[in-house]
Design brief:
This protein has a domain of 114 residues. The protein contains 4 helices and no strands. By secondary structure, it is mainly alpha-helical. Helix 1 packs antiparallel against helix 2. Keywords: Membrane, Transmembrane, Transmembrane helix. InterPro entries: DUF6328 (IPR046291).
């Protein structure tokens, strides 16, 4: 039996033509529990990456090469660290949010806020990655092609993280709506 999406349709093509969506038959609490579990799984992936990146960023200032960086590169570094710290906070935020409101019977609202924090964290992670890549390539090469290379990588991230999911969301959820 195929799994159903949140609209209740089954199958890869959005359901059977002309058939009414069947739904999951979830209570609001069951839906909130499922959505929370899905969100936590997503956060685990992003959290690990941002924490590792942030940890490495914090060590850069203690390397001998740091003193030789230009003031522009130091500014980029400080910006990158601030973005990394902000991304880390946003991606860990849902855990603290859940812990503080747990047992208060507001899980549906907690899921919404945790989702918002996660999305914000992903945007900040994107900015951190852009800034870190720009800094590393500037220091490593000093070449004029660095902004073009970073632009290409940013374009790839935007396609993978936003364009493709938004296209799929539009493509597969507007057929029957």
């Amino acid at each position: 039996m195929p799994e159903h999406d949140e609209r209740g349709t089954s199958g890869e093509d959005g359901g059977t033509a002309g058939a009414a969506p069947r739904g999951r038959n979830e209570t609001p609490d069951e839906r909130a529990d499922r959505r929370w579990a899905e969100l936590i799984q997503e956060i685990r992936v992003a959290q690990t990456g941002v924490q590792i990146l942030f940890g490495f960023l914090l060590t850069v200032v203690f390397t001998p090469k740091f003193a030789d960086l230009s003031s522009t590169d130091k500014t980029i570094y400080i910006t990158t660290v601030a973005l990394g710290a902000s991304a880390t906070g946003a991606l860990i935020g849902p855990v603290a949010f859940h812990r503080i409101v747990s047992g208060r019977r507001i899980k549906p609202q907690a899921v919404v806020w945790a989702s918002r924090l996660t999305f914000t964290g992903l945007i900040l992670l994107l900015a951190t990655l852009i800034s870190a890549l720009f800094l590393v390539l500037r220091v490593a090469t000093h070449d004029a092609f660095v902004p073009w290379l970073v632009t290409g990588v940013v374009t790839w991230y935007v396609i993978c993280w936003f364009v493709l999911p938004l296209w799929a969301r539009y493509r597969y959820t507007t057929q029957d709506d």
